[in-house]
């Protein structure tokens, strides 16, 4: 099954116009939010944040207990409506904090609820140095008909190096050039 995660043509470069890029993210502490914001800035894509119907506890012990239980039971929380649906997009950046070695349940819910067949999925996640798990594989299991690329792991919010970290990830995942069209101007990300 994991064999299907591999790209059909690993030498291809992708040219994706800004109207074809969607960034979807869930952020608890703000770190994933900052990464998504920088991706949006770099690509010009549309950005949609995910919010669960029931917010998570603010106290860390309660949060950790709830997250462990949700991850172990594969719980899919209800979500507030989002600003964009993925149908019109060819590439979707999907971001989450790393919770217990996997994606946060709100992102898992969003992935489960949307048909992402044939789309390029570019997972990214923030973490504080904990267990990294197999977030790419976890996303692939939820979206087996998508082209799931290598996940980007960022400690905290990436700091000042975040633009360089993103540039290297775009090259590594073979999204080597973004052509952004705005008001008659074209610019390349790289």
TrEMBL record:
Enumerate the SUPFAM superfamilies for this protein.
Flavoproteins
Gene Ontology molecular function: any one:
oxidoreductase activity, acting on NAD(P)H
Q: Where is the Flavodoxin-like domain?
A: 21-150
Q: Which InterPro entries match?
A: Flavodoxin/NO_synth (IPR008254), Flavoprotein-like_sf (IPR029039)
Superkingdom: Bacteria
Q: Which PANTHER family match?
A: EXPORTED PROTEIN-RELATED (PTHR39201), FLAVODOXIN-LIKE DOMAIN-CONTAINING PROTEIN (PTHR39201:SF1)
Q: What is this protein called?
A: Flavodoxin
To which species is this protein native? Answer: Candidatus Fusicatenibacter intestinigallinarum
């Amino acid at each position: 099954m994991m064999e299907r995660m591999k790209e059909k043509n690993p030498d291809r470069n992708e040219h994706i116009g800004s109207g074809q890029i969607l960034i979807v993210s869930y952020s608890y502490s703000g770190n994933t939010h900052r990464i998504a914001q920088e991706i949006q800035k770099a690509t010009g894509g549309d950005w949609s944040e995910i919010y669960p119907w029931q917010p998570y506890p603010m106290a860390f012990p309660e949060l950790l207990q709830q997250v462990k239980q949700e991850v172990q039971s594969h719980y899919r929380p209800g979500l507030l409506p989002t600003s964009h649906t993925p149908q019109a997009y060819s590439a979707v950046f999907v971001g989450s904090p790393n919770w217990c070695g996997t994606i946060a349940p709100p992102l898992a819910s969003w992935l489960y609820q949307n048909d992402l067949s044939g789309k390029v999925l570019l997972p990214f996640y923030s973490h504080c140095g904990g267990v990294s798990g197999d977030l790419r594989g976890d996303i692939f299991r939820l979206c087996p008909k998508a082209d799931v690329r290598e996940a980007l792991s960022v400690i905290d919010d990436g700091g000042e190096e975040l633009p360089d970290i993103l540039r290297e990830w775009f090259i590594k995942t073979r999204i080597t050039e973004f052509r952004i069209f705005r008001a008659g101007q074209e610019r390349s990300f790289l």
